[in-house]
Automatic annotation (TrEMBL):
Protein known as: Adenosine deaminase
Molecular functions per Gene Ontology: adenosine deaminase activity; zinc ion binding
Binding site for Zn(2+): 23, 25, 212, 304
Keywords: Hydrolase, Metal-binding, Nucleotide metabolism, Zinc
Matching Gene3D superfamilies: Metal-dependent hydrolases
A GO cellular-component term linked to this record: cytosol
Record note on cofactor: Binds 1 zinc ion per subunit.
GO biological process, any: nucleotide metabolic process
Origin species: Streptomyces clavuligerus
Family matches, as NCBIfam families: aden_deam (TIGR01430), PRK09358.1-2 (NF006847)
Catalytic activity: adenosine + H2O + H(+) = inosine + NH4(+); 2'-deoxyadenosine + H2O + H(+) = 2'-deoxyinosine + NH4(+)
Family designation: Belongs to the metallo-dependent hydrolases superfamily. Adenosine and AMP deaminases family. Adenosine deaminase subfamily.
Length: 382
């Protein structure tokens, strides 16, 4: 463990800090109790456990397999129980509420509309139900004295062939709650270049997209996502470290691709716990985020799948704080990076940084200052 700086934030301070989340899957963030309720309503009998705590533990363990393919199998259950407008509305509302309770002030939450059509919904109805759920969750959060804005990202599955259709859907809803597009699913054997028509369409429409790349698969996947597809951000992108060498003397050399990613300020949607579960990284202390932060890459901290990883944004920051000795200034740096990289308009991002994030962190940092003064004067013996 790194040495603890004097201003190491407490778990409670981390939770109260205004945070920004760019990479979170709606179908990876259901409350275990909600999965149980919805399965009962839908007559879905294939859940491995029906008691919420045990089901939550099952998801975490099943996802802890060391392989992205096995990790992704657990989504069969969450998708099976979210095939109606009511179910989608509920999980979206609960998502916004849960994120707000964790201190998230701005989130982009993604899901694949094509995975919610088995109960007879159309793509438009799926998007409408989720958007309404997010608005309801924002409203409920407000009633509880919390403020959050949630934008949706529409994901196309990389093994399927509906990406252009989903990109068009995202574009149609760009003024009604959908802020961008993504592709996800198993990386190996499914290069993003198979979906070039979707990306080219979005570029022609001046729209935004991120691509899951450089999670299980290395540099070629990141290179394709950026240089062939034109991604605005990288979903994970953690394997960019394969293009960075740190010599015995500590001297750092960036390859051409890593230099491009840093120079162009390409946002990396890093998801530490998820990487540990899929076997991309061995431990928090070994997570490349430590190096990437030191080298000033545009790194951000994300949950990926709160249910499968049993995590929250605050918990990700707690683990990183333990591993790297991060201070509130580091957490603010990641948060401002994330807000700068969001897909909403520039003036709104700036207002969020200046009027919400910076004042929130200043408040927390001033608390630390006063508590230190009190300790110092009482220990001096008067
Ligand atoms: O870390 C990930 N890498 C790649 N695909 C993922 C990851 N997490 C979730 N999904 C996939 O994205 C779909 C839509 O939300 C999920 O159903 C899951 O299959
Ligand atoms: Zn993901």
């Amino acid at each position: 463990m790194a040495t603890k700086p004097l201003n190491t934030p407490t778990a409670e301070q981390i939770r109260r800090a205004p945070k920004v989340l760019l990479h979170d899957h709606l179908d990876g963030g259901l409350r275990p109790g909600t999965v149980v309720d919805l399965a009962r309503d839908a007559g879905y009998e294939a859940l491995p456990e029906t008691e919420p705590d045990r089901l939550g533990a099952w998801f975490r363990e099943a996802a802890d397999s060391g392989s992205l393919e096995r990790y992704l199998e657990t989504f069969a259950h969450t998708c099976a129980v979210t095939q109606t407008a009511d179910a989608l509305f509920r999980v979206a509302a609960e998502c916004a509420e849960d994120l707000a309770a964790d201190g998230v002030v701005y989130a982009e939450v993604r899901y694949a509309p094509e995975q919610h059509l088995e109960g007879g919904l159309g793509l438009e109805e799926v998007v409408a139900a989720v958007n309404e759920g997010f608005r309801e969750g924002e409203r409920l959060a407000r009633e509880n004295g919390r403020r959050i804005r949630v934008g949706a990202l529409l994901t196309a599955m990389r093994h399927a062939a509906r990406s252009l259709e989903i990109a068009e859907l995202a574009n149609r809803h760009r003024d009604t709650g959908v802020v961008g597009f993504d592709i996800a699913g198993a990386e190996a054997g499914h290069p993003p270049t198979r979906h070039l028509d979707a990306f080219e369409y979005l570029k022609r429409e001046n729209n935004h997209f991120t691509i899951h790349a450089g999670e299980a698969f290395g540099l070629p996947s990141i290179w394709q996502a950026l240089q062939w597809c034109g991604a605005d951000r990288l979903g994970h992108g953690v394997r960019i470290v394969d293009d960075i060498t740190v010599g015995a003397d500590g001297e750092v050399t960036l390859g051409r691709l890593a230099a491009y990613v840093r120079d162009r300020r390409v946002p990396l949607e890093l998801c530490p716990t998820s990487n540990l579960q899929t076997g991309a990284v061995g431990s928090y202390a070994d997570h490349p985020i430590g190096l990437l932060r030191r080298l000033h890459f545009r790194a951000t901290v994300n949950t990926d799948n709160r249910l499968m990883s049993g995590t929250s944004v605050s918990q990700e920051f707690e683990r990183l704080t333990e591993a790297f000795g991060y201070s509130l200034d580091d957490i603010q740096w990641f948060t401002v990076n994330a807000m700068k990289s969001a897909f909403i308009p520039f003036d709104e991002r700036l207002a969020m940084i200046n009027d919400v994030i910076k004042p929130g962190f200043s408040e927390l940092k001033s608390e630390w200052l006063f508590s230190q003064t009190a300790v110092a004067s009482s220990s001096s013996g008067g």
